[in-house]
Amino acid sequence: MASNNEKVDMLLVYGECRRNSRNAARLYAERYPERYHPPHNYFVRIESSLRNSGGLPARRGDNQRNQRQLIGQVNEQNELQVLAYVQLNPRSSIRHLSNEIGISCKKVQKILKKNELHPCRPDLVQKLVPGDSNRKLTFITWFMIQLHDEPDFLRFICWTDESKFTNNGIINKQNNRYWADHNPYWTTDTNHQTVWGTNVWCGLLDGRLLGPYFYDGTLTGRRYLEFT
């Protein structure tokens, strides 16, 4: 393609030919036989570019190169926005990030993956109230002393737990499957209007299972005695 100096020469020849593009193309080819010879309408394009944009027309590939650079700048800006937003709002979802920044969920996911950011899920722990920490430390200290004095101390502890099962229990769809060569439109009843349930108590002592014991109502000391 022509350089800027060559484009200036084309414009001068175009002026000599009184803006006749075909004559300008022939004269330019005769005067500069070793150069690139553009089609006649290229001379018109040079003049039009100077009048409309104040500059010479870009060479072939310059527009694509500029577009790639612009896309790169936009991508870098989007990446910085995503990382900054995640830094300030680490619990945001990909969909929320996409809506807030204005890019697709797929691009958000690529940016997060590129920067090695992973969705960390929370661990469910017991809610503590003031004073629980001190009581836990006191119990641990007492427990370690007992275990030191009596290595078989754990054998004499009765580990117990109780739970209530209802007909509206939690159903995990990931653990339910129905294999078939067609969709059976399988359903499972839940959220019953009439709720019933039962309470179960189990214990573990010296490796032996105690129970299970089924009972109605709240577990009280009297019901503990009834188990025996």
TrEMBL record:
<protein>
    <submittedName>
        <fullName>Uncharacterized protein LOC112684545</fullName>
    </submittedName>
</protein>
<dbReference type="Pfam" id="PF16087">
    <property type="entry name" value="DUF4817"/>
</dbReference>
<feature type="domain" description="DUF4817">
    <location>
        <begin position="5"/>
        <end position="54"/>
    </location>
</feature>
<dbReference type="GO" id="GO:0003676">
    <property type="term" value="F:nucleic acid binding"/>
</dbReference>
<dbReference type="InterPro" id="IPR032135">
    <property type="entry name" value="DUF4817"/>
</dbReference>
<dbReference type="InterPro" id="IPR036397">
    <property type="entry name" value="RNaseH_sf"/>
</dbReference>
